[in-house]
Automatic annotation (TrEMBL):
Gene3D superfamilies: 3.40.50.2300
InterPro entries: Bact_response_regulator (IPR050595), CheY-like_superfamily (IPR011006), Sig_transdc_resp-reg_receiver (IPR001789)
Organism of this sequence: Streptomyces narbonensis
PANTHER family: RESPONSE REGULATORY DOMAIN-CONTAINING PROTEIN (PTHR44591:SF3), STRESS RESPONSE REGULATOR PROTEIN 1 (PTHR44591)
Name under which the protein is recorded: Response regulator
Domain of life of the organism encoding this protein: Bacteria
4-aspartylphosphate: residues bearing it: D55
Length: 224
């Protein structure tokens, strides 16, 4: 069973949260509500999220301040943030959103299809990263048990399975990168996809180094 990605929806107005849920329900992912910046930060302490949809205008801690807190935390700094706002004070207001760490800045009323398409890109990138971390964990397990007597065939079988799984992820990542190029996607999404491809390349090199006869000590990619 494939684990669903979590999407954090942050808005102080219940009707806005309901509207976001209606738009994003078609993605079939886990939607988590937060009615304030403080509540959002609390949710981020325990759960991992693929993307955050963050309202700018909120009483108390607004969207800009909430984003600043998110980007200061090592655990959450790399989570993509899409700002949603009902006001537009021109380029300076938009620049403040990007300066706070947003990957996108959308003014209300927004096109539901466009918002859903943007969110789906980050969900897919998140799922690819999860698969990559899973492959790295299995590889480490293989390395730890590979030197023990009587496990040669098991190690070889696991290595072959890892290579096949990685090949499938590589194919999906390549297709996603081509889709981003064709759709002229946001620079942040393209950069995230490129980062994923670099991690996949590092893992492939580590697997190749484990092939019999290479004599090379594999260096595993960092899990970031």
């Amino acid at each position: 069973m494939v684990q669903k990605a979590k999407i954090l929806l942050v808005d102080d107005r219940p009707e806005n949260l309901l509207a976001l849920e209606a738009i994003l329900s078609a993605l079939d992912q886990t939607l988590v509500r937060a009615s304030s910046g403080e509540e959002a930060l609390k949710a981020l302490l325990t759960d991992d999220f693929a993307v955050i949809l963050l309202d700018v205008q909120m009483p108390g801690m607004d969207g800009f301040e909430t984003a600043a807190h998110i980007k200061r935390r090592e655990r959450t700094r790399d989570i993509p943030i899409i700002f949603l706002t009902a006001i537009n004070h021109g380029p300076h207001h938009t620049f403040r959103g990007y300066a706070a760490g947003a990957v996108d800045y959308i003014s209300k009323p927004f096109d539901p299809w466009v918002l859903r398409a943007k969110v789906s890109v980050f969900v897919e990138l998140y799922m690819k990263n999860c698969k990559l971390r899973e492959q790295a964990a299995l590889l480490r397990l293989q390395l730890e048990g590979g030197g023990e007597g009587g496990h040669g065939k098991e190690s070889a079988g696991l290595l072959a399975e890892l290579s096949a799984r990685l090949a499938a992820v590589e194919e999906q990542a390549e297709a996603l990168s081509k889709q981003l190029d064709d759709d002229s996607a946001d620079a942040a999404a393209v950069a995230t996809a490129a980062h994923l491809e670099r991690k996949l390349t590092g893992l492939r090199r580590a697997l190749d180094a484990l092939e019999p006869g290479t004599g090379a000590a594999p260096t595993l990619p960092a899990q970031t």
